[in-house]
Design a protein that fits this description.
The chain has one helix and no strands. The protein is about 85% helix and about 0% strand. The relative contact order is 0.05.
């Protein structure tokens, strides 16, 4: 019986595993960075959207006020 002990792994296998782990770590760092950028962009879009909603409500109230004034002028 010519069996290898379970704890003996060829050096090449360890190097391949180490290389694969390094690539996974690099990919994880890249994805974390990309995720951070996307979260920041989402926050910026949310702030911009809130500002646009506020400005839209302001314009709507001004238009409603003008319509009311025009109706009151027309009734005179």
């Amino acid at each position: 019986m010519d069996r290898k002990p379970a704890n003996k792994v060829p050096i090449g296998d360890w190097e391949a595993l180490e290389d694969r782990i390094d690539r996974i770590i690099d990919r994880n760092r890249k994805l974390a960075s990309e995720n951070k950028a996307l979260c920041e962009a989402q926050r910026n879009w949310s702030v911009e959207r809130a500002d646009l909603v506020r400005r839209n409500e302001l314009a709507k109230s001004r238009i409603e006020a003008m319509i009311s004034r025009l109706k009151s002028l027309a009734d005179e």
